[in-house]
């Protein structure tokens, strides 16, 4: 009897660990469309600890044809930031492309003194922040210095690196802001501004490279 109880407790603990932020995550990557060869060239790189760098799309860069949808590049995107939170998703059309959202902060949104006064969470592919009494920095600066990023891994290596990212990590992502369009009319478009908030303000990044620093 005791052995059965111990085994059950171990199983519950294993499931909890697997689903927790400390457990392993499955590396998921959207396959290319039938007959398509997808290359993901690197955009211009942001300097270490710099604000996100957005760059023009070269005229020769073709759309990325993936099985769930075709990705039209809107801008190059390079970011060096702190992970404020992460959330994995397995349902919805968006999850066929992007399995994970990373809430990222740069500038003073990296600082522990600021973050310790904010309550940060993610839900429904949104990034939320709250404070008590007064915000630690101006709200406009919070908006301009943080973002919820829907990450679309461009390769298995990127997907594996994404699966290992944890809250508090410093990460660098280089890729392309995109609009996803499916044959049935479904579409999902990235923001191309850092000062917007609310509906449509998240960045959708086709990540050519992702690494922790």
Features:
213 residues, alpha+beta, five-stranded mixed barrel, two-stranded antiparallel sheet
Could you characterize the architecture of this molecule?
The protein is an alpha+beta fold and 213 residues long. The protein has one domain. The protein has 4 helices and 10 strands, in the order αββββαββαβαβββ. The protein has helices at 2-19, 112-115, 139-144, 156-163; strands at residues 53-55, 64-65, 70-88, 100-105, 119-123, 126-130, 146-153, 170-181, 187-189, 203-212. Strands 3-4-7-10-8 form a 5-stranded mixed beta barrel. It is globular. The relative contact order is 0.20. The model is unreliable at 11-24 (pLDDT under 50).
Layout of SSEs?
Blueprint: H1 2-19, E1 53-55, E2 64-65, E3 70-88, E4 100-105, H2 112-115, E5 119-123, E6 126-130, H3 139-144, E7 146-153, H4 156-163, E8 170-181, E9 187-189, E10 203-212
Parallel strand pairs: 7-10
Antiparallel strand pairs: 1-3, 2-3, 3-4, 3-8, 4-7, 5-6, 8-9, 8-10
Task: Provide a concise account of the structure shown.
With 213 residues, this protein is α+β, with helices and mostly antiparallel strands.
Tell me the helix content. 10-25%
Shape: globular
Instruction: Please tell me the total number of domains.
Output: 1
The overall pLDDT, averaged over residues, is 91
Whole-angstrom Rg: 18 Å
String of helices and strands: HEEEEHEEHEHEEE
Strand order of the largest sheet: 3-4-7-10-8
Beta-strand content bin: 25-35%
- Distance between the terminal alpha carbons, to the nearest Å? 48 Å
Number of strands: 10
Number of discrete helical segments: 4
Q: Look at the helices and sheets and give the structural class.
A: alpha+beta
| Biggest beta-sheet profile | 5 strands, mixed, barrel
Which consecutive residue ranges, at least 5 long each, have pLDDT under 50?
11-24
